[in-house]
Design brief:
- The complex is a heterodimer of chains A (about 250) and B (about 325).
- Chain A is an all-alpha fold and about 250 residues long.
- Chain A has one domain.
- Chain A has eleven helices and two strands, in the order αααββαααααααα.
- Chain A has a two-stranded antiparallel ribbon.
- The radius of gyration of chain A is 18 Å and the shape is globular.
- The two termini of chain A are about 25 Å apart.
- Chain B has about 325 residues and is of the alpha/beta class.
- Chain B has two domains: about 220 residues, Rossmann fold, CATH 3.40.50.300; about 90 residues, Malonyl-CoA ACP transacylase, ACP-binding (Alpha-Beta Plaits, 2-Layer Sandwich).
- In chain B, the strands form three sheets. Chain B has a six-stranded mixed beta sheet, with helices on both faces.
- The longest helix of chain B is centred in the middle third of the chain and has 16 residues.
- Classes of the chains: A mainly alpha (about 250), B alpha/beta (about 325).
- At the A-B interface, helix 1 and helix 5 of A face helix 2 and helix 3 of B.
- The structure holds adenosine-5'-diphosphate and magnesium ion.
- Adenosine-5'-diphosphate binds next to strand 2 and helix 1 of chain B.
Chain lengths: ~250, ~325
Amino acid sequence: MSRTSFAYIVKRELYRLYTTLSQSLFPPIISALLFLTIFSFVLKDKSTIGAPFTEFLVPGLIMMAAINSSFTSTSFSLFLSKWTKQIQLILTTPTSYLELVSAYLVGAILRSLIVSIGIFLVTLFFVVPSIAHVWALAYYFLLACILFGSIGIILALKAETFEHLGVVTTFFLTPLTMLGGVFYSIKDLPLWFQKITLFNPVFYFVDGFRYGLLGATDGPLGIGIAVTFILTATTVASVVYLMKIGWKVKY
Amino acid sequence: MHAIEIKNLKKSYKNEVAVKDMDFYVEKGDFFGFIGPNGAGKTTTIQCIMGLLKFDGKISIFGNDNVIDYIEARKLIGFSPQEENLDPFLNVEQALHFTAGYYGLKKDKIKERVELMLKDFGLVKHRKKNTRALSGGMKRRLLLARSLVHDPKILILDEPTAAMDVELRQDFWKLMKRINGEGKTIMLTSHYIEEVEQLCNTICIVNEGKIIAMDKKETIMQDLSNQELKIKTNKPVPSDLIKVEACKIIHENTHTLVVGKDIRKKANGIIKIIEKAGIKIEEIDIRNESLEKVFLRITQTNANQSEALKITPEILKDKK
Ligand SMILES: Nc1ncnc2c1ncn2[C@@H]1O[C@H](COP(=O)(O)OP(=O)(O)O)[C@@H](O)[C@H]1O
Ligand SMILES: [Mg+2]
């Protein structure tokens, strides 16, 4: 297997990120900054699952940004690739499907990492967070990037126009993240709403990542690990399969 | 072992059969011309070879199946597509650099090859230009440089000279001849028949998804081409004077044109008949049809049997 093909696709993803830094890095950091500013004034004294609200909010904001960045990274990159027929260049080079998928996902992870570090640095103006469980931070962060990066790939393959991607972001991704417990503990919700939330995968990522920082959870930890793992594994497997059969790419 | 071998290739799009049943191979070191009218299925065939389409049949590249051993097969081919697919985020130099990387070249090798390609294709001055800022001709050059950056054994070019002006095209021809001379196998499609006639050793003519003729260029020209006998006389030749089997005869004033097979052998007889009738012959010219005419005639024959020979009075006057 030509490992360098993988390396150069990742390199190109990073280069693309670098040339579009003002669109990809600053907006999520600025919106995180705005959320923090507003909530730190308004809800300063509110305590949520045993932590001051600002501290409660930070992991949610980072996870939200990571999910969005991963999804945007793969979906836009691959869609543009289809649009400019770049994908046809890649598909004529000795690049395996596994390599291609992993390169896009690594691109998504790196982009999310850069954005998240940016947000983390900004939050230091408001709270100095403690880190309770490093493994949980790493696990949930990586899985979120891989899952939503993979969803981005599927949608980029499916989409025929840029608007399709926008529609998915507006009607699917944003509601899921907004209702995924970034801004509130689900225990503050009516019981029926809590039950529905348990079907929202974003909730497990936010809650698990928060567990990594604060050491406290909102929902059942074991179920969270299982749900996120199974969901991610099946989605990645589907992406590799779809790439292999050339779904929506090879007719 | 053949450079490219295609067996029972069939390809349909949703509601259209683009390639019916193609069977051919391209010999190692050959310069293979793949020609046919628009919509004949050239691009489709090439995209099957490149693994960009699903298809029925079997394609191998130096013995590597292009579906099963696709990694090996792809390493051996450089490809310049009909529609440009340059990376809008990169400049000329980067486009070459990244492509070499996708092909798995080592770092030092990449540097060396990129410099060589920039020089060979006259792109040194444009190396920092974004690919979007290039003119049509320059884009073509870059596509070509890109297809050669990993030093492949086979080069597949789909209408590479479409957007080139005459001068650039001539440069390109020289370059192609050199590359083929260095031992690379080239498969070329073009709608400039003249280009194929100049460059290629083997010619494959396709129409409506089928091969209608394929052979060495000389053989194709011999077997398929008609000859033309042009005679200029001091007074008009009566239209019922000469009768030649399976030939078309056109009279216009003092010009007479006879078109058909084996005219060379029949010429003497024709001349004698004219001279016997007391008409003086001022000029005689016999020549083979150009590939272009052969091509037009046989692709049209295929589409419309009744128009086997298309001769207009203008041909009579064209003299070189
Ligand atoms: N993506 C496609 N979808 C449907 N039909 C197509 C597509 N591409 C080509 N065709 C059809 O297949 C036939 C062969 O096209 P093509 O291979 O592009 O011919 P050529 O390259 O010889 O001009 C044409 O009739 C064309 O309309
Ligand atoms: Mg074509």
